[in-house]
Structure to design on (244 residues):
C-alpha cells in the first residue's frame, strides 16, 4: 500500500503515471519515442522544413518583439526557429528532449555558420535554464503536455521570462480546420493517453496565460511550399508580453 505523496513533485509523478508509457512524451521517458520520430529526416512532416514560423518572422518584422537579446527556444526540434533567432543576433538557448533532434539542429547551425547558440538536451522542466530571457518561444511543445504539467510550464515562464519580455507559441487549434484532441482535461486522464496532442481555443490560451499581456492571438497563416517561412492554419499563434 503506497502512501508516499508528500510534495508537489510526488503529485506530478503520480499524475504522469496515469498515462500509458507510449503517451509519456514530455519527460525523459519519452526521449526514445522522439528519437525514433526524428530518425527519418525525409518523411513528410510539416515542421521538418528548414524555415522559421511565419508568426515569428511577422512579429519581428512588425517590431512586436525586439530583433536581438536572449531567447529560449522550448522544444526546438531540428532548430529551424533557433537558427532564425540566431541570425537576428539573439543569444539562444535551445532545449529539446530528443538527442536526435538536437543533433539535427546542431548540424543546421554548423552549416549556417551561426553563433550564439547553446543546445540543451533534456526535459524542459528539469533543464538548467538560466534566465532572464527577452523572448521565450515555443513552437509545438505546449500541446504535448498533459493538463497538470501546465502548472510547471507557467512556473517556468515566471522564473525565466524577463520583465517586459515576450512569450510566443504555436499550438494545436480547436475548431474548424484545427488539429489535436478536443477533449476535456479530465477525459485525457480517463483515457490514459493524450491522443496526439491537446487542442486549444483562443479563449483557453488567453485564460491560461492571463498573467501576461496579450499582444496577438490568431490562426497561423497557411504558407505554400515555396514560401521562405512555415505556416499551417491548424495552429494558433500567440504573442504575450510580461509586464515590466
Amino acid at each position: 500500500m503506497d502512501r508516499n505523496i508528500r510534495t508537489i513533485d510526488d503529485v506530478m509523478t503520480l499524475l504522469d503515471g496515469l498515462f500509458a508509457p507510449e503517451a509519456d512524451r514530455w519527460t525523459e521517458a519519452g526521449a526514445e519515442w522522439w528519437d525514433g520520430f526524428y530518425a527519418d529526416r525525409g518523411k513528410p512532416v510539416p515542421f521538418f522544413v528548414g524555415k522559421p514560423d511565419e508568426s515569428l518572422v511577422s512579429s519581428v518584422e512588425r517590431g512586436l518583439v525586439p530583433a536581438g537579446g536572449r531567447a529560449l527556444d522550448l522544444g526546438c526540434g531540428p532548430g529551424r526557429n533557433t537558427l532564425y533567432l540566431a541570425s537576428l543576433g539573439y543569444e539562444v538557448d535551445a532545449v529539446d528532449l530528443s538527442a536526435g533532434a538536437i543533433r539535427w539542429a546542431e548540424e543546421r547551425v554548423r552549416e549556417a555558420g551561426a553563433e550564439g547558440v547553446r543546445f540543451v538536451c533534456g526535459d524542459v522542466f528539469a533543464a538548467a535554464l538560466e534566465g532572464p530571457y527577452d523572448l521565450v518561444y515555443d513552437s509545438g511543445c505546449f500541446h504535448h503536455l498533459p493538463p497538470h504539467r501546465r502548472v510547471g510550464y507557467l512556473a517556468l515562464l515566471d522564473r525565466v521570462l524577463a520583465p517586459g519580455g515576450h512569450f510566443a507559441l504555436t499550438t494545436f487549434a480547436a475548431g474548424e480546420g484545427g488539429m489535436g484532441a478536443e477533449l476535456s482535461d479530465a477525459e485525457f486522464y480517463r483515457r490514459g493517453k493524450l491522443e496526439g496532442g491537446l487542442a486549444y481555443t483562443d479563449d483557453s490560451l488567453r485564460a491560461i496565460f492571463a498573467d501576461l499581456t496579450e499582444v496577438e492571438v490568431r490562426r497561423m497563416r497557411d504558407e505554400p511550399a515555396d514560401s521562405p517561412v512555415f505556416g499551417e492554419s491548424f495552429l494558433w499563434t500567440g504573442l504575450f508580453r510580461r509586464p515590466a
Summary: Strands lie at 69-74, 90-96, 117-121, 133-139, 161-172, 213-219, 235-241. The two ends are 49 Å apart (CA to CA). The chain has one domain: 8-241.
